[in-house]
Amino acid sequence: MSAEPTTAPTVDPTLVGTTATRAERGGIRVPWRFILNRAAFYLFTAWAAITINFFIPRMMKGDAVDSFMARSQGQLTPAAEKALRLMFGLDSSVPLWQQYFDYWGMLLRGDLGVSISTGMAPVGEAIASALPWTLGLVGVATVISFAIGTSVGAVIGWRRGSALDVFVPVTTFLGTVPYFWFGLIFIAFFSSTLGWFPAGHAYEVGVEPGWNSEFIGQVLSHAALPVLTIVIASLGGWVLGMRNMMLTVLDEDYITVAQAKGLPNRRVLWKYAARNAVLPQIQSFALSLGFIVGGTIVMEMVFSYPGIGLLLLNATNAKDYALMQGIFLVLVMAVLVANIIADIVYAVLDPRTRQTEG
């Protein structure tokens, strides 16, 4: 008895040339060469950023010790001033190149210095106390805005020419309004007039922080207005970007083939069109995540929110170079890590990227 002829596995023709091809073939190859190339680039970028972070504060007029001595009104002796300069690495008798290498040595040991504006507390502790508030607030708001804006933009692009197009100019207009205007309007309406939400701070005075229902409820209620402010102000960019990419993707041949095969519109929308149109959004999303750390100064001022943006403002006013450098370092690392993750995700979803880079 002759063996039955075997047939080679067929590939869905609607997926050829799209980012779904690799997934249809079963398994995704990890682009190690692409990852290593990008990692080398970002390591160089990190070195350059840290170097600039060291030199810029030392090029500014005045320093934290001068500011501290002015506030002390002559109560500190010259010996105490010299000791402070040694502590903060601002001793003019030490060559600049030596200060630079000492700074790198501190970084490698995980020592970011001492903050003069927070009562001589370690910079790492000052940042660690403020960073979770910013990440929790703005991070959640950014993810919500990205998810809603991308989904709505995909549907609007799919149903182009319908009544849904009115959302594009509306959300775009809202995106041109500064954050603090929305914040002030929401405080006046939802807090002062209706009394639904608190006007500011992260929780009420006297509430003991901890993993209990009272504290969590306080945090959520105080974060409601800031989150609403960020979501509404940033929604327009996600909607417009995804809608425009959908219009481009819908003209591709594989969309026509998929529709000609009689596939359900929902499957064509999400598996074929939106999957390819979302790629540029991923890069923008990574950048927005990176700028979460330092892009909320005004919003945190309006709501008196104890995040990293307000901490940076206070450090700048006090000329607290150690704290400024620590915050800038966290900002740079956040941007770089977010971009590395975006590059990896982009390369996995779109094999053409790593083929070009390789």
UniProtKB/TrEMBL annotation:
Pfam family, one: BPD_transp_1
Membrane topology: Multi-pass membrane protein
Every ABC transmembrane type-1 domain range: 131-342
Signal sequence, renumbered to the chain: none
GO BP terms, alphabetized: transmembrane transport
Matching PANTHER family: OLIGOPEPTIDE TRANSPORT SYSTEM PERMEASE PROTEIN (PTHR43376)
UniProt-recorded name of the protein: Dipeptide transport system permease protein DppB
Organism encoding this protein: Microbacterium azadirachtae
Name of the gene: dppB_4
